Amino acid sequence: MPPRDSIPALVLVHGLGLSGRYFVPLARRFAARGAAVLVPDLPGNARSRAAAARAPGVTQLALALAHWHRRLSLGPTLLVANSVGCQVAAAFAARNPHMVSGLVLVGPALDPGASGRRQFGQLLCDVPREPVRLLGVAASDYLVTGPLRCAASFRRALRDSAESFEANLAQVRVPTLVVRGEGDPIASRSWIRRVACLVDDGRTAEIPGAAHAAHYSAPDAMATLIQKFMANELRGPA
User: pTM value?
Assistant: First the structure.
């Protein structure tokens, strides 16, 4: 099926220290349905580690994403982000509303109400809940990014969470779907409800049997959720 003009392109935004590889299962689902799907690697992370001399902060990553978006001359796109990638997507959407048709925030992190130690512990709790294949992909990406750079990125993401994340969300004016896996120890139900309330037009959903990376462990369920969201909120009148 060829891409439909009424369906925006999807841009998939990975989390801290990772590459876009763990979005491949979801990307394949949408490509098979005829959608245009782009999966950038943010500078300073994994395979794009050399693109930044130091670990970029969330704002720098959002600026880099906007530069990439302009270079490709993309129209308004649907951003699908995971974990700390949700902070990047929120910063991007707040600064570039004309580039965004909608947001899907999967397991948004980091929660400003939780300490860095607590959130690191929650990340460790998530490990046994994820598919073994994902753990291999993540471990490989983290090794390429490097432990020192991952730690620096985590500190900068914590700072953005405390200072800017909620303010950026409050500036988001496009339809937003906030999703968590039922077993996600990082993004709680109360937190995703708050995220949905902060944006101008938000709603929530939960995927049974999935954890923090629900887009990887349950790509069919995630694709169905996103497709319904796009059909109901983004296509507009026929």
Answer: 0.93
